[in-house]
């Protein structure tokens, strides 16, 4: 679970403007942070299938958002993928 301070840092780093909290870039970066934390949890707890299902849902939602961003704003897409260190 992300703390409020972590979310605010992500909003500042990836936001388009100061009050941006819902753009595709923000959503992708929040999901990426949650995915990395949940992946670490699942390495320690391999039998936690409920969390694994949530992880798969997050990964698929991030993929949908990345596809949307690549179609509508390829410049922003490429810079975001580079910043987050994603494979694409």
From TrEMBL:
Domain of life: Bacteria
CDD domains, per database record: Ribosomal_S15p_S13e (cd00353)
Function of the molecule: Forms an intersubunit bridge (bridge B4) with the 23S rRNA of the 50S subunit in the ribosome. One of the primary rRNA binding proteins, it binds directly to 16S rRNA where it helps nucleate assembly of the platform of the 30S subunit by binding and bridging several RNA helices of the 16S rRNA.
Keywords for the protein's UniProt record, in alphabetical order: Ribonucleoprotein, Ribosomal protein, RNA-binding, rRNA-binding
HAMAP family to which the protein is assigned, alphabetical: Ribosomal_uS15_B
SMART domains attached to this UniProt entry: Ribosomal_S15 (SM01387)
GO molecular function: rRNA binding; structural constituent of ribosome
Protein name as annotated: Small ribosomal subunit protein uS15
Biological process according to GO: translation
Species name: Candidatus Wolfebacteria bacterium GW2011_GWC1_37_10
Record-linked InterPro entries: Ribosomal_uS15, Ribosomal_uS15_bac-type, uS15_NS1_RNA-bd_sf
Quaternary data: Part of the 30S ribosomal subunit. Forms a bridge to the 50S subunit in the 70S ribosome, contacting the 23S rRNA.
Pfam family, one: Ribosomal_S15
Family named by the database record: Belongs to the universal ribosomal protein uS15 family.
Matching PANTHER family: RIBOSOMAL PROTEIN S15, BACTERIAL AND ORGANELLAR (PTHR23321), SMALL RIBOSOMAL SUBUNIT PROTEIN US15M (PTHR23321:SF26)
Cellular-component GO terms for this entry: cytosolic small ribosomal subunit
